[in-house]
Every structure is written in structure tokens, then in C-alpha cells.
Amino acid sequence: MPSRVSLVIPVRDPASAKSRLAVGDDPAAHARRAALAAAIALDTVTAARAAREVGEVIVVGTLASALDGVQVLDDPGYGLLVAVGAGLAAADPAAPTAVLLGDLPALQPADLDAALVAASEHHWAFVPDAEGTGTTLVTAAAGLPHALRFGEGSAEQHRDAGYAELDVPERSGLRRDIDTPAQLAALAELAAAGAVLLGPRTAALL
Fold this sequence. Notes:
This protein is an alpha/beta fold. It has a single domain, classed as Spore Coat Polysaccharide Biosynthesis Protein SpsA, Chain A (Alpha-Beta Complex), CATH 3.90.550.10. It has helices at 27-49, 80-90, 109-119, 154-160, 181-192, 200-205; strands at residues 5-11, 54-61, 70-73, 97-100, 124-128, 135-140, 164-165.
């Protein structure tokens, strides 16, 4: 039986995360942004932890509250790739590894399981975001290093680096990362229509 995946999730401190979700200097807007960022991260990690294909879960950064079965490491403080590298260095070297973005409030364990099973057919694989330009998940088979390309245009760059693109429905919560008010509004509309299911903490704030 294949080993379960060691999953690394980078999470920024809610005090500075998701800055584009609040505009201007209104303290109330920034307080709501910080609360929403914390809720999104907790919903994402909770869903990931419930996936059957996931073994250890390593969060690099800050969670607003502790979650059972989740190891939290301090963010080294030099950007996303360094944070992810710290998580991968702590992962089980005998297991497949994956990196999941921490801003997927509609993530469902079954969707992550399906993607990880599909990814097991490849040395490296990735899932693009709903826009098709970014990346929400990357995987590598046990013993293989990553060639991470997170950032602007990362989907094309991961493809060029040898990651196989997984066929995940565009509406899947696995592809719905939240960085902008437009993305948040679009996800809220999908949730209202019953097309996606938001995590409970995020739903309570929308």
C-alpha cells in the first residue's frame, strides 16, 4: 500500500495575511480581514487533516488555535519558498510529499484525497488555481525533491518544471484560493448556490 502523504501548509500570521482583502486604513476592515484570514487557514488545515491520503500535516507559520494532529513550525521569515522548504525538511523522508496553500476555505477532504490518488501516478504533479495561472497543490513521489515555482504564473512554470497537471474541476474547493475581494465574492456566490461548501469558520464570517 502506498505511503500516506506528508503535507506541508504555509500559513502567514493573520495580522499581515490577505492584505488585499481590506482597503484603506479603516481599523474595523483590517480586523475583519485578520479574522477572515485566520478562519480560512483553520478551515483549510482542518479539511486537509481529515483527508485519508494525508499522513502528517506540517504547518509553517501561525494558526489562530491549535489543531490536533498538526505540527506547527515557526516561519523562518524569508518568504514563501523558504517557509515551504522548512516544512519539507521536517517531513518524513520515506513518504511522498505535497505542499498545499493555506487559503482554500472550500477545500473538502474528498477532493484532496482524489487529487493525491491521481498524483500518485506521477513523479511530480500539481493542481492549478481556478484562474489557471496559479498553483494550489504540488506533489512529489517519495525520495524526489521539489522544483517549486510558487508566485506569479506558477502554473505554467510548474508545468515547464516537469509537474503533471491534474484534472480537477474548476469549481472544486481545491482550486479556489482566496487572495482578492473578487475571488472571495465569487466563492461566496458559489457557496450560496450550493456549488461549494465553505468551511464553518469562514462561512460564519461571510
